[in-house]
Amino acid sequence: MRRPFLLLASRAEDVAADGEYAAFLRLSGLAEHELRRVRMEAAPLPDLDLDDYAGVFLGGGPFNSSDPPGGKSAVQRRVEGELAALLDEVVARDLPFFGACYGIGTLGVHQGGVVDRTHGEPVSCVSITLTPAGRADPVLAGVPPVFDALVGHKEACRVLPPTAVLLASSPACPVQMFRVRQNVYATQFHPELDVPGVVARARVYQHAGYFPPAELDELIARLSRAVVTEPGRLLANFVARYG
Q1: Residue from 183, 208, 17 nearest 7 by CA
Q2: Which CATH topology does 5-242 take?
């Protein structure tokens, strides 16, 4: 029996958390017993032996690495500390890791990049362009050089970590994906989201500051016209490579 993958999640809202887990399952091709989920916002991270897992996913969430220290809740500070310790081991051992959205902020800070609010993007569908390194990367195998993906983030990596290789970019957000060493990945866009998924998530986070709450219906109408087919391939490729 192959080792399972691990999904580290931090969404406090059950609808969003369960939707994220279902999306990772569907697009990765994993069954529930092959993807263990730990909700970090709910309790301290249990003792983990990373050798028990084929790879680690880090989902998105409400936390921003660039939040002022005094404005961070006790839960956010705990989660950040636990992730920093985990990334120490992940990077040192070059263990398979894939962080989505919040993952790029966390890994970016950990590796000495600059994460701030310069390149935040509204909830939208954007065009992503692969770099030459991205076109050659196995986790991006089969992905066209330019593709559409769903985004929605208040912060982004403004200065690429010195240890990172840029894999994908977009006009409004130059760092959309990078790799550290050979097996540690992070994206700013959401590889787990399709159009129904982002619409459901927009409803959950209507009052979370990502867009004016009164514009929800207009936003949903705009999102519903998007055609997003490629980003989920990254999750399937990651599992195929490391599973």
Answers
A1: 17
A2: Rossmann fold (3.40.50)
